[in-house]
Amino acid sequence: MAVWMSGAAEELVELWWRNKKERWEPESERSEKLSENCESLISGVTSVGGDGTVKKGCMQNEREALLEFKKGIVDNDGILSSWGNEEDKRDCCRWRGVKCSNRTGHVISLDLQNEEYIFEPLRGKINPSLLDLQHLTYLDLSFNKFGESRIPNFIGSLHSLRYLNLQYNSFFGAIPHQIGNLTNLRSLRLGHSYPSVLSVENLEWLSDLRLVATH
C-alpha cells in the first residue's frame, strides 16, 4: 500500500536525512574537504599557463551529455546560454551551473537552482544523458519545472552523488526505490512538490543508504 505524502509528511525523508547529517561528520569527510582545498591550490599552478589560459578543459563525453540534457529543456530566459558547441563555449567547466574537478577535469557539480525566481524556471525532462556524469557529486535542480512527471529511476545510478536536491519541481508518484543505491548521499531533498503529490511505497530502501554515523 502506498503512503501518500502531504504537507509536513511529504518532508519525512528530507527531515530524516537532515537529522542524521547534523549529528556527526566523520573524520574522512573533513579530510576530503581539506583535500579539495589543496587540490584547488595545486590546480592554480598546474592548470593555468603563463598566458592565463586554462589548459585542462572538460571531458568531451561529459560536454556532450550536458548538451543532450539541454536539448530537452525550455529555457526562455537564456539561463543556459553559456552552454554550446561554439569555439568560445567548448569548455563546459566554464558553463553556468557547472563545476569541474581542478585535478581531473570531470564534472562534479551541476547546480541549476532557481530559488529566488529571478529567472523563469527551466522546464522539461531530466535527460538520462546525465548518466555520463559518473563523477557528479552535487546535483541541484530545485525551484524549476522539471517535474510534472515521476522522479526518473536512473537518478539512482549516479553513484557518486553526495547531494541531491529536486524539491519544488512538481514531481508526482512514487519516489523511486533506486535512490537507495546512492550510498554516498549525505543530503537528500525531494519535498514540496505542490500541487503534485509524492508517495512512497515503503521506507526500506533508506536502510540501503550508507549514512554518516550518529554520536
Structure write-up:
26% of the residues are buried. It is built from three helices and ten strands, in the order E-H-H-H-E-E-E-E-E-E-E-E-E. Strands 3-4-6-7-9 form a five-stranded mixed beta sheet. With 215 residues, the protein is an alpha/beta fold. The chain has helices spanning 12-23, 27-46, 60-71; strands at 3-4, 73-74, 98-100, 107-111, 123-124, 138-140, 163-165, 173-174, 187-189, 198-200. Mean pLDDT is 75; it is low at 1-10, 20-28, 30-35, 37-47, 49-55 and 211-215. A hairpin with a 6-residue loop joins strand 3 and strand 4 (107-111). The two termini are 34 Å apart.
List keywords for this structure.
globular; alpha/beta; five-stranded mixed sheet; disordered N terminus; 215 residues; single chain; three-stranded mixed sheet
Topology (elements, then pairings):
Layout lengths: L2 E2 L7 H12 L3 H20 L13 H12 L1 E2 L23 E3 L6 E5 L11 E2 L13 E3 L22 E3 L7 E2 L12 E3 L8 E3 L15
Parallel strand pairs: 4-6, 6-7, 7-9, 8-10
Antiparallel strand pairs: 1-10, 2-5, 3-4
Q: Please state the CA-atom Rg, rounded to the nearest Å.
A: 18 Å
| Mean pLDDT reading | 75
| Beta-strand fraction estimate | 5-15%
Q: Give the termini separation.
A: 34 Å
Shape: globular
Number of helices: 3
Largest sheet: 5 strands, mixed
SS class? alpha/beta
Quaternary status: single chain
Helix content: 10-25%
Strand order of the largest sheet: 3-4-6-7-9
Low-pLDDT stretches are 1-10, 20-28, 30-35, 37-47, 49-55, 211-215
Count of beta strands: 10
Order of helices and strands: EHHHEEEEEEEEE
